[in-house]
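Input record (one chain):
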Amino acid sequence: MVMIRTAIPLICVILLSACGGHKDEVQYDKGLYQQVLDRQQAGLQVEADDIAKTAPMTAADHERLGDSSLQQNNLAMAQVHYSKALELDTKAIGTRYKLGLVLLKQGLSHEAYGQFQEVLKHDDKSALAHEGMGQAHLQGGNESAAEEEFRQALILDAKLWKVHNFLGIISDHKKQHGNAIQEYQAALALKPGEPTVLNNLGLAYYLTGNYEDAVRAYQQAAMTGSTQPKIQNNLGLAYAKLERYHDALGAFTKGSDQAQAYNNLGTIFLDSGKPRHAAICFEKALEASPRYYPKAADNLALAQRTANQQPAVTKPTPTSCP
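The corresponding structure, as predicted from the sequence alone:
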């Protein structure tokens, strides 16, 4: 979405004192806060200077504006508002938790961890704070500490489906794919049809060589209406492992475009020792987009060189690309 940088028509009234020795006072229009909120909800850009010119706002005002900014994925402005809200009310643990999430989204894991720690000082039973600390550890690469926090979160609240998903990711990293599958299934029991978890489940099945179940998981993820290209691309890879190449091409096309889909399938043929099939796919990729997809030309040359290096056969094997 294009953000329009238009200055807010801020209205202020200058009140001149009857005594010339007194400083001028500025009275702000209380309706300006609503103007800022309306602009954010309309998707228009709001600058920090604009906020400073509005009437003094409460912690609740800043939190609402922070929520609106977060909804628009304006993380920097969300951070500003949540921080200002906490300056006015340091014990607002809900706001502090939101600030921690915003910091995580910005990759500031150390700062986010500190906010979740502060939440626990006011509520030592906060499962969400432990979940947030686990995410901060995971983002920082400390998987053992992350797992410890996630386990504590589940002790406090067994219904946190995201925690099971994170534990599944950690298990996959450890190549403990059976454990990962159990965690993803636990997440889906709490959040049925969640496409992110279904994609992760498909990957775990794929890594164990269970391509049929991988296909089913990816298909379910796609049926949720998710537009994540990686789901279709992963589905195409699983189809290819089952030698369902027409289905693989269809999935790749949905995940990208026709040129890339043919290039992907050609790469699979090339890796599986079928350079002549691969060459046909790369040629089709070039036909679909000769200027946009120069990579296919390099791949085609490689496939042709590889095919020429293979021993000659008395009866040529039919070659094709779906």
